[in-house]
Design brief:
single chain; globular; five-stranded mixed sheet; about 35% strand
Length: about 110
């Protein structure tokens, strides 16, 4: 029986390429642009041939501008360096600019 007071789980979608990095703990953040996310329980959804859903929780959200991202931000997001993170942001968000506000979403895997 579901707890009527339980916080509803929000969906958090990921590109299929990030599944292994999230599972192994190499990727502990995701950078989002114009994609509102709140702290609390999430279903991390990876769009593969068969959808994969991992249970998790968003623990912190940090707002900053694209040009304020650091090497540490890139590594936490599972990338080699800041240049690779910027390349992936332009891939996912073609109209993003250095002055745009983004959200760094810190998350963790949970058992339930």
């Amino acid at each position: 029986m579901k707890d009527p007071h339980a916080t509803p789980r929000q969906p958090l979608y990921f590109h299929r390429n990030y599944l292994d990095a999230v599972r192994t703990g190499q990727k502990t953040t995701t950078v989002r642009f114009r994609d509102p996310v709140a702290t609390g329980p999430v279903d991390m959804i990876f769009e593969l041939d068969e959808e994969v859903v991992l249970q998790g929780a968003v623990t912190q959200i940090i707002s900053k501008r694209v040009d304020e991202l650091t090497e540490e931000d890139a590594v936490a997001d599972g990338f080699r360096d800041l240049e690779e993170l910027h390349d992936r942001l332009r891939y996912h968000y073609p109209d993003i600019t250095p002055a745009d506000e983004i959200a760094i979403v810190r998350f963790k895997l949970t058992d339930a």
